[in-house]
Amino acid sequence: MNSPIKIFKVTVQLEKDTYGLEVNHWRLLVETNRYYEIKPESGPVKRIYKETEYGSG
Question: What is the rounded average pLDDT of the residues 27-39?
């Protein structure tokens, strides 16, 4: 049995000798052979395309 995919957005802000870290969970809505559709807690749905074995040509 395959485990579900978990997608996170990690944001780090660096300023001189301090830093801020933010981790957000993104919900997987759709998985196809070509792409994932994900949705952050707030904001529009995004599409992430998978890499292909054959390249672009």
Answer: 91
